[in-house]
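Example record for the data management plan.
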Amino acid sequence: MDTNILIVDDDSKIAQLIEIYLKNEGYRSVKAINGFEALDIMDSQLIHLVILDVMMPGMDGLQVCLKIREKQITPILMLSAKDGDMDKITGLISGADDYMVKPFNPMEMVARVKSLLRRAYFSLQMSPPSEHLIRLHSLQIDKQSHSVTVGGKVVRLTPIEFGILFLLASHLGRVFNSEEIFELIWKEKYYESNNSVTVHMSRLREKLEKEMDGEKLIHTVWGVGYKIES
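Corresponding structural encoding:
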C-alpha cells in the first residue's frame, strides 16, 4: 500500500523539491497550496503524514495544525523560516510532531519523515502481544490500536505524546530524564537547550488531566525527570 504524504506549501518550488525527494524514497505525494485545500484533502483521502509550512496566506500552518488535531493524530512535520525557540514551541504546542527551519537539507527532511512514520505506524508491529495493553485504574493504553481511553472515553494523542505515555506507563516507578525520553522516542541524539520534551509533556498532561478530573498521572521529580507511580 502506498504511503501518502500531504505537502502543504504555497511555494510551488519548495513543494516540488520535497515531492522529488519523497518520490525517490517510494512515497506518494499529494500537494495543497493553502490551508483550506489541505483540510479538504485530509477529509477526503488517506494521508499518513503531513509536511506543513507555517507561513501561508489565508490560514497559516498553525491554524491548519490545530484543525487537523481536532480530528486526527496523523504525524505532522512543520516547516518554517522562523528559527526562534518560541516559534518552535508554538509549532509543537499547536500539535506538530517535529519542526524544521527553512532552508533545510532535503535529506534530513526525508530522514525525519521516515522517523515519524516509523514511530507512528511500523514500530507498533514490533512489540510482543503481552506488551500491547496497559491498564492504570480508569486509563487504558493499547499500543496495537495506538489508542488511549479513560473510563472508555477516547483521549486523542499525537504519535509523540502516545510514545511518551507508553514509555512511562510500561516502566512504572522509573524516572526518565528529558534526554532519555528524547532519544528513546525521537530516536535522535539529544542536543542542549532542546525543549521538545517539555512542550510535549505539558500538552500530554493537560489532555490526560482534563479527562481524569484533574488527577495527576505523570509526576515530575524536580531536577531529575518524569515518572508514573507504580
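Summary line stored alongside the record: Residues 123-130 have pLDDT under 50 and may be disordered.
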